[in-house]
Amino acid sequence: MKKRYIYYPLFLGLFLGLGVFLGNLLSVNGLDNGFTSNSSVKKRKLNRLIDIIDQRYVDEVNTDSIVDVAVNGILQNLDPHSVYISTDQAQAASDDLRGNFVGIGIRYFVNQDTIAVLSTVKKGPSENAGIKSGDKILYLDGKPLFGEDKLSTEALKGQKGSKITLGILKPGDEAVVYVPVVRGDVAIESVDAAYMLTDQLGYIKVNRFTETTSQEFKKAVHKLEAQGATQLAVDLQDNPGGVLNAAIDMADEFLREDQLILFQKDRNNQRKDSYATENGDFEDKKVFILINENSASASEVVAGALQDNDKGTIIGRRSFGKGLVQQEMQLGDGSAVRLTVARYYTPTGRSIQRPYNKGNEDYFNEYLKRYENGELTDKNNIEVNDSLRYKTPGGKVLYGGGGIIPDVFVSGPLGYEAQILDYFARTGFADRVANDYLQKEGKFLRNMKQKEFMDSYQVPESLLLTFYQNARRYNNSLRLTGNRDFMTLLIKSSLAEQLYGTELKVKLLNTRNKVIDRLVELSTQSR
Predict the structure, then answer these.
(1) 329 pLDDT above the threshold of 70
(2) Residue ending a domain, choose from 411, 433, 467
(3) Hey, which residues does 101 pair with through a beta bridge?
(4) Whose CB has fewer CB within 10 Å in the chain, the N or C terminal residue?
(5) What is the rounded distance in angstroms from the CA atom of residue 28 to the CA atom of residue 496?
(6) Catalytic residues
(7) % helix / strand / coil in the chain, to the nearest 5?
(8) Closest Cα partner for 412 from 404, 422, 403, 402?
């Protein structure tokens, strides 16, 4: 049971939250015109039942919650990726896919009843006001954000252009300073890092696909080309997907004009094709795509489009296997559904969607079966369906029915302890310990130049032991012996992100990454 716990929570949160395709919005009224009289009778039956419960049930019942349960129940019987978005979830869900929101621009957690700033969004309202990682936010317009009568953290949100005053306690200080902040548009960056791995190999880490990803990605490509990149690696590991058009635009960077990127089929078997344009900047250069078992949806569109067109090299482990297209539809009260309206296929005609006919529980457990049958550590354990065999124009054999199988396999973490530490690395487990330390040593570390931090900063033994004690609370079988170096790296990478930004964290973690090691090796061989 412990082994299952490592993967399941992250997977469920990622793929119910972000692993969707967003199309054009449909109106409820537009759909009503297609209902038959029989379906109208069934709708009235459901409405009648809710009215009866509301009027006659022995106890007081919140009928709104009944409706939510009913909607969720209906969608769960369709497929694993058709989801209901309640009114209070709608704004956050929309922000995730749009790639921006209105706020003060901080990443934080509540530590012992106090808001602790982990990092500020680059060029966001808080950074502009001088707020930094390690700061504590105690007051908002004179009202406490801690204690029994505290304001909700939701109070940090508000209308664009509205001004608030935050009471900040900075590391090492005893007096609160009051900082004016103007709420504004805050970007949710989908490109975590863009830097040169070698003198010829550029590297871009993409964490999701939003409406701003295309612009971010193209900017990153141009930056690396200016630095001499003749090869490019796009890291889509743990990327759960998002906006379909962003995936099409990314694939277009590498494919020639009129090459097929994907096609979709709806319930009437009507086909919609998406082709590459002449706008790609990396069509004649070597490209590598990195994927793993948490790469889904839009990530698989990119990997599948390149693989089927014999472009580049796919490195890593078999991707998740989501080939369904969702469309968001408003329900009239601020809530919405993301309903599966089509299937997509790679250029050779592959559907990479895993079967879900046995129900959602079996669908999600299939993901765990990969771990249990050894697929994550040995490519020979990957199960393929020979009846779903396809060939690319160049003669490469591919398989449909369950994700993208990479061209070059790289095993996941070997051993239970290594898997736990990998989970820690992917979920930011060290962030709180690092932030607590920043609040104590913030003045010292904030004055340290980035190069000095990278070259010479050593994580104190006391901080390492604090992290280890926290890790043991999560799993008491974890040992310090043999894991000291990686635990130290996790702490330093978390400090780096909070002090200097996410790219530095990615750089540090990539120094101990087998996929990156294999990537550099292949890049060198292909010159």
Answers:
(1) yes
(2) 411
(3) 186
(4) N
(5) 47
(6) 297, 308, 322
(7) 40, 20, 40
(8) 422
- How does DSSP classify residue 153? G
Three-state DSSP state, 223: helix
Q: What is the pLDDT of residue 16?
A: 39
Considering the domain architecture, whether residues 476 and 502 belong to the same structural domain is answered as yes
Strand residue runs (E) in 355-511: 389-391, 397-399, 408-409
Q: Does the residue 230 lie in any domain?
A: no
Do 292 and 400 lie in a common domain?
Answer: yes
In this structure, is residue 195 part of a structural domain?
Answer: no
Q: Cα–Cα distance between 193 and 133 in angstroms, integer?
A: 19
State whether 394 and 421 are in the same domain.
no
Average the pLDDT over each of 107-116, 220-229, 429-438 and give the range with the smallest value: 107-116
One domain for residues 68 and 119: no
Residue-range definition of the domain harbouring residue 123: 100-187
**What integer pLDDT is reported at residue 171 of this predicted model?**
87
Tell me the per-residue pLDDT of 10-63, one tens digit each, with 9 for 90 and over.
Answer: 444 444 344 433 333 333 334 444 445 566 777 788 888 888 888 888 888 887
**Would you state the structure tokens that stand for residue 237, as one six-digit string?**
């590991």
Q: Could you tell me if 318 and 269 lie in one domain?
A: yes
Helices 431-446 and 461-474 cross at an angle (nearest 10°) of: 160
Three-class secondary structure of residue 73 per DSSP = helix
Q: What is the count of structural domains for the chain?
A: 3
**Residue 117 burial (CB < 10 Å; 0-12/13-18/19+)?**
buried
Rounded to whole angstroms, the Cα distance separating 435 from 109 reads 10
Q: Is residue 404 part of a domain?
A: yes
pLDDT of residue 37: 55
